[in-house]
Structure formats: structure tokens, C-alpha cells
Specification:
Elements (H helix, E strand, L loop, with lengths): L2 H13 L19 H15 L12 H10 L1
Length: 72
């Protein structure tokens, strides 16, 4: 599964965000993803993608998150 699809699934399952509303240039702010939601998203991504995020900073769009995950 592509990373963006995994992110869309997590956002849908955990935050009830319609996957059709999520695109690469969507910002977390535009999706109403706050800092606590972001922690939940990152923890779930770590589990599903078997990666360790460390301390990512400056991620503001879905594309940036996808690129970060894919670089791990």
C-alpha cells in the first residue's frame, strides 16, 4: 500500500476524516489535525510502516509527511 493511502486510512479510522478530502497538498491545519491528533497519526504510522519517526519537525502537508516516511 502506498504511504499516502496508509495515511488516508489512519486519518479516516482515527479522526473520521473523509479520505476523498485528503490530497498531497492538504495541510494538517486544513484537515483540523491538531498536535494531539498528530501524535496519534505518527504512532499509528510507526506501527503500520515499521519505522521510527524520531522528532520530525516542519511537516505541514500530507506530501511532506509522505516524503518523510518514505525516506526512513
Amino acid at each position: 500500500m502506498a504511504t499516502i493511502d496508509t495515511i488516508k486510512d489512519i486519518l479516516h479510522e482515527k479522526l473520521d476524516i473523509d479520505p476523498d478530502a485528503v490530497s498531497g497538498d492538504s495541510t494538517f491545519e486544513s484537515l483540523d489535525v491538531d498536535s494531539l491528533d498528530m501524535v496519534e497519526l505518527i504512532c499509528e504510522l510507526e506501527d503500520r510502516c515499521d519505522v521510527d519517526f524520531g522528532e520530525p519537525e516542519g511537516l505541514s502537508t500530507i506530501d511532506e509527511l509522505v516524503a518523510y516516511v518514505d525516506s526512513l
